[in-house]
Amino acid sequence: MPDILLPIIALLSGFILLIWSADEFTDNGAKIANIFKVSPLIIGLLIFGFGTSAPEMLVSGLAAMDGNTGLSIGNAIGSNIFNIALVLGISAIIIPIEVHQDILKKEWVFLMVATLIAGLLLWDYRLDETDGLILLTLLILFLTYTFKESKNKSHHEFDDLEHDIDRSQTAKTWIMLLVGLVVLISSAKLVVWGGVEVAKAFGVSDLIIGLTVVALGTSLPELAVSITSVLKKQYEMVVGNVIGSNLFNTIAVLAIPGLIHPSDVPTEVINRDYPIMLLLTILLFVVSYKISKKHIINRFEGVVLVSVFSLYMWQLF
């Protein structure tokens, strides 16, 4: 039993570091948005979306180099399911989330198009260089659009920013943002390692560990950042983080195995996992959009999203 002590310590310290780094990351991201007069939505989509997708990219790249593309594909799709069903669901249960109408008209549409294109590319049960290049082109288009949007000065909602920004602190803020991101990713890795070792000690199979602990572990940064953002009432960052992260997972993380190690797509991905990801992407719009009312994801809708996740987990077992 002493063998399990180190993994338990790693798991607990990983969670503590995760909470601290998410707080630092969110705080400094909001400061950067204020300094450069950039919309929190853009910060959420780019810095948080890309930054919190880094674990998925790392796992996908390493797995593809080892020839294990099934893990890469499963990681991308599984993380998207975690992000919408668990991250947004739990965030909405804590505090109902107000969704900016522009997100539903633009960013969500881009995510839906990317999700449908990814589905078409996977439909032949093969992911190759051509598929990877198509997804990479979508990524370039998305980044170009986002940078163009960042110049749009029409919506800058800095909800309850507690700090008067001193521009001389810009360098320090960037450093702390980077430190927060590094600790965020490292602590997620610590949680995954601890969780896997604890699961092994209790005799849980590698497959179940991969589908649950690893997928959850790579989505922990999104969960931590979203909960911290919602508590600070930075709602644009919450939804921007999830949509941005899912976009990076769909078009960047999925492109990696196609470009590095083209191979066949497991049938379960098309029959079970992709349909759930598509359903949740549609549900994201359904729970957000309200005719002639504020677009709010309420607590009941948060429970619905978490219930879909629970049913999906039940299906895996």
Arithmetic mean of pLDDT:
83
Termini distance?
A: 27 Å
**CATH topology annotation:** A middle domain of Talin 1
Q: Could you tell me the number of beta strands?
A: 4
Q: Can you list the strand order of the major beta sheet?
A: 1-4
Residue share in helices? over 70%
Short description:
With 317 residues, the protein is mainly alpha-helical.
Question: Would you give an account of this structure?
Answer:
The protein has 317 residues and is mostly helical. The protein contains eleven helices and four strands, in the order αααβαβαααααβαβα. The protein has a single domain, classed as A middle domain of Talin 1, CATH 1.20.1420.30. The strands form two sheets. The chain has a two-stranded antiparallel ribbon. A two-stranded antiparallel ribbon has the order 2-3. The longest helix is centred in the middle third of the chain and has 32 residues.
Task: Write the topology of this structure.
Blueprint: H1 5-35, H2 40-65, H3 69-94, E1 97-98, H4 101-122, E2 126-127, H5 129-150, H6 170-201, H7 206-231, H8 235-253, H9 255-260, E3 263-264, H10 267-288, E4 296-297, H11 299-316
Helix pairs in contact: 1-2, 1-6, 1-7, 2-3, 2-6, 2-7, 2-8, 3-7, 3-8, 3-10, 3-11, 4-5, 4-8, 4-10, 5-8, 6-7, 7-8, 10-11
